[in-house]
Structure formats: structure tokens, C-alpha cells
Amino acid sequence: MSVNHVQPEQYFLPPTPHVPNSRLPVLVYRNVLEDTSPRNIVNTIEPNGWIKGGQWKTYKVPHFHTHCHECYGIIRGGSTYLLGVGPNDPKVDEEGSPYGMKLTVQKGDVFVLPNIDIDDGKGILEATGHRFDMNYGFKPPEETSALAKQSESVAIPLLDPLYGLDGPLPRLWREAARSRARL
């Protein structure tokens, strides 16, 4: 396994009118991949139960999944993602704070999106823990609430995509689920 041992950054994204987002944080592992070849990434994540879902230069359609978590490995260059906000959402919330966050990643970074965090589709190599559905952030707020409830049944993975059983993802997500349980 060709990975550096790093502690992931954590980012919590609040819900928007059209994207329920997750109570679990987005995890970002900076400069974790020593070997950024697609083969190495697949050989690292698949033994940990994460399946290669695709490999792209750019996928320009904002979307989210309610049935699976996603892991993106950056194999070359860099990219900036707008996470946690849909195309029909206002730019700011009622207090004037911007919805979503811009995440800049570089070659060798990996980030993991819990189910429902929307991304603007610039992933280079994607792996999913389960089969996925596609949602584009266009549904009315009432249906968005139903998607949030549906997504809560998705299990927290037992294995970190990079470090397996000893990795931080399961612990961090369990702690977040306990402390940020939806009311």
C-alpha cells in the first residue's frame, strides 16, 4: 500500500433547501497518495470495501447520492469543488452566510463524501461503498426532507478507504453521528 499516514480534515455542511447534506463530515486526506496511479488507488481501496465507480477528467453536473458514500482520489493536477449546495439553492442562508464550501484538492489528495453531500463533479477517480442513485438538487424542499430521512439508513463503513480497520473514518463518522443526531 502506497499511502502516507495523515489525519483527515473534517468539514460539516449544513442542509440547504434543495440539498439535505449529511450529519457526517466530508473528510479530506491531504497528500496521502504516494503513488497516484489509478491501479494503486484501486489496489488500496478495494480491499477495504470501496469499489471503483469511475474515472473522469471532469463531470460537470452537480449531484448527490442518498444510497452511498464516495471517495475521490486525485491522480493528477488539481481541482476546486463546490460542495454541499445545489443549482436551485440561494447563494446565502437567512443569516447571510454562504451555502456550501469550496474545496481545493491537488494530486495525491483523497476526499470522502458521506452520502448526500453534493459535488460539482470534478472527481478524477471515484470509489463508492455501495450502488448509487443520482439526485441533482432540483427537488422541492419537502422532497429534500424525505431524501434526508432515507439517507440516514446508510451504514457507516466499517473500513476506512485508505487505512482499513485502523483508519479514522469509521471512528470520526460514528462520533459525528452521535453528536450531531438529527432531531
Lay out the secondary structure.
Blueprint lengths: L8 E3 L14 E4 L8 H8 L5 E5 L14 E4 L4 E6 L17 E6 L3 E4 L11 E4 L12 H11 L17 H11 L4
Antiparallel strand pairs: 1-2, 2-7, 3-8, 4-7, 4-8, 5-6
Protein name: Cupin type-1 domain-containing protein
Organism: Emericella nidulans (strain FGSC A4 / ATCC 38163 / CBS 112.46 / NRRL 194 / M139)
Jot down its keywords.
six-stranded antiparallel β-sheet; Cupin type-1 domain-containing protein; 3 helices; globular; RmlC_Cupin_sf; YjiB-like; alpha+beta; 183 residues; 8 strands
What portion of residues is helical?
Answer: 10-25%
How many discrete structural domains? 1
Q: What amount of the residues lies in strands?
A: 15-25%
Residue-averaged pLDDT, rounded? 82
List segments where confidence is low: pLDDT < 50 over at least 5 consecutive residues: 117-130
Radius of gyration: 15 Å
Widest sheet, order of strands: 1-2-7-4-8-3
Distance between the termini: 41 Å
Order of helices and strands: EEHEEEEEEHH
InterPro entries: RmlC_Cupin_sf, YjiB-like
Protein name: Cupin type-1 domain-containing protein
Overview of the structural elements:
- By secondary structure, this protein is an alpha+beta fold.
- The chain has one domain.
- A 6-stranded antiparallel beta sheet has the order 1-2-7-4-8-3, with helices on one face. A two-stranded antiparallel sheet has the order 5-6.
- The relative contact order is 0.27.
Structure, briefly:
The chain has 183 residues and is α+β, with helices and mostly antiparallel strands.
